[in-house]
């Protein structure tokens, strides 16, 4: 694969990858590092990309893997006695982290279609039409399932946080 083809096929995904990386990591500087690492890994496999059915999905999978590796590395460092990097410097950052863990748990317990649509839309940044093609349903079904998933997440989050507040009192 020539560099021009690689640029058209892979580097054009940069803005999308940056959004996903910022969502996964929470910082613009590390998000840029994740995108660059993704480009390097894809360049190393450039000869296989011509035959790959979905280069964008591959790039998203690679960047998520990089984020997981980074998280594991930080976790390992903190286990060895070093302090992990803080994602937020605000006093309530631990509460925010706990809230995010709670939301992830709620999303994991959604019905499979709602879970997939929610992740594609709100985490990966796909448009409704793209999600409809991926899931094999209509754009209206995507909109309805996304709405149901968001309402359920909100309802469960409120219910669970109210239970925690009652226990802490």
UniProtKB/TrEMBL annotation:
Keywords: DNA-binding, Sigma factor, Transcription, Transcription regulation. One of its GO terms (biological process) is DNA-templated transcription initiation. CDD domains: Sigma70_r4 (cd06171). GO terms for molecular function: DNA binding; sigma factor activity. The lineage of its organism: Bacteria, Pseudomonadati, Bacteroidota, Bacteroidia, Bacteroidales. Residues 10-75 form the RNA polymerase sigma-70 region domain. It comes from Prevotella aurantiaca. PANTHER family: RNA POLYMERASE ECF-TYPE SIGMA FACTO (PTHR43133), RNA POLYMERASE SIGMA FACTOR HI_1459-RELATED (PTHR43133:SF8). Gene3D superfamilies: 1.10.1740.10, Winged helix-like DNA-binding domain superfamily/Winged helix DNA-binding domain. Transmembrane segments: none annotated. Belongs to the sigma-70 factor family. ECF subfamily. This is Sigma-70 family RNA polymerase sigma factor. SUPFAM superfamilies: Sigma2 domain of RNA polymerase sigma factors (SSF88946), Sigma3 and sigma4 domains of RNA polymerase sigma factors (SSF88659). It comes from the Bacteria. Pfam families: Sigma70_r2, Sigma70_r4_2. Residues 102-153 form the RNA polymerase sigma factor 70 region 4 type domain.
């Amino acid at each position: 694969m020539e560099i021009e083809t690689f640029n058209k096929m892979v580097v054009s995904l940069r803005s999308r990858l940056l959004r996903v990386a910022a969502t996964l990591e929470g910082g613009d500087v590390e998000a840029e590092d994740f995108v660059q690492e993704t480009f390097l890994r894809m360049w190393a496999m450039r000869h296989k990309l011509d035959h790959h059915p979905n280069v964008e999905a591959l790039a998203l999978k690679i960047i998520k893997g990089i984020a997981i590796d980074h998280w594991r590395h930080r976790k390992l460092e903190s286990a060895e006695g070093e302090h992990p990097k803080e994602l937020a410097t605000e006093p309530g950052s631990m509460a925010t982290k706990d809230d995010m863990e709670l939301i992830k748990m709620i999303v994991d317990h959604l019905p499979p279609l709602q879970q997939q649509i929610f992740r594609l839309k709100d985490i990966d940044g796909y448009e409704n039409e793209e999600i409809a093609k991926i899931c094999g349903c209509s754009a209206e079904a995507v909109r309805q399932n996304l709405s149901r998933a968001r309402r359920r997440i909100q309802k469960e989050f409120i219910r669970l946080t109210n239970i925690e507040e009652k226990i802490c009192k």
